[in-house]
Backbone:
């Protein structure tokens, strides 16, 4: 059951350069893959910025186009200074947040959640706010992680990538087991993931991109 405790969260979102982002979607998406990666990130960040309890969003990326468009939404954008992979980028982003807001509660969130609903994210963050330890949400497959939250002053200690649910459990993070937050769990790595996100209903940027490949703007489909 979600806690009634509220907390002001800073959310950190990592994003690879678009030329190499979402490589596992290459077969399903073809040449539109970089544009899809950007649409996913924009829809994700826009939804996070609408979420109750979120103070700000920091995106860690070296992609110039993505940086400009995400900053235009209102996100703080910082370069991937460590250039040492996903978890190093998240640690760096959390550090930059706490330079700006000492003692901030920080949540790391995947940037490929195009169906994200602000109200569902708020439920997850409320659940995370009710504990003093780190907390995480598993992905739709129950293997990976889409969100990791650290309370004020606690290190984020991310262990994303592959079977990260088991790694986060092993590091002492508490699993959030809310039943009705599908949009926060549905990241997109494969064509099947993308179809699942489309079924949930994706954000306007992803929808607009798919409309260009669909006979009906109201029925986006895989290109």
Residues:
């Amino acid at each position: 059951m979600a806690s009634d405790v509220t907390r002001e969260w800073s959310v950190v979102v990592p994003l690879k350069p678009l030329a190499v982002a979402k490589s596992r979607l290459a077969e399903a998406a073809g040449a539109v893959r970089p544009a899809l990666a950007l649409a996913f990130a924009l829809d994700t960040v826009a939804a996070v910025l609408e979420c109750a309890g979120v103070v700000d969003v920091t995106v860690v990326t070296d992609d110039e186009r993505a940086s400009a468009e995400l900053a235009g939404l209102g996100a703080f954008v910082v370069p991937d200074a460590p250039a040492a992979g996903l978890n190093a980028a998240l640690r760096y982003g959390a550090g930059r947040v706490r330079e700006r807001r000492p003692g901030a509660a920080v949540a790391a969130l995947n940037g490929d959640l195009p169906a994200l609903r602000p109200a569902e994210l708020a439920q997850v963050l409320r659940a995370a706010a009710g504990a003093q330890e780190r907390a995480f949400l598993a992905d739709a497959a129950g293997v990976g992680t889409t969100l990791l939250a650290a309370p004020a002053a606690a290190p984020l200690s991310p262990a994303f990538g592959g079977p990260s649910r088991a790694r986060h459990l092993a590091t002492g993070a508490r699993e959030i087991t809310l039943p009705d937050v599908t949009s926060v769990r549905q990241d997109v790595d494969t064509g099947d993931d993308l179809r699942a996100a489309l079924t949930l209903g994706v954000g306007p940027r992803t929808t607009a991109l798919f409309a260009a490949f669909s006979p009906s703007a109201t029925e986006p489909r895989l290109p």
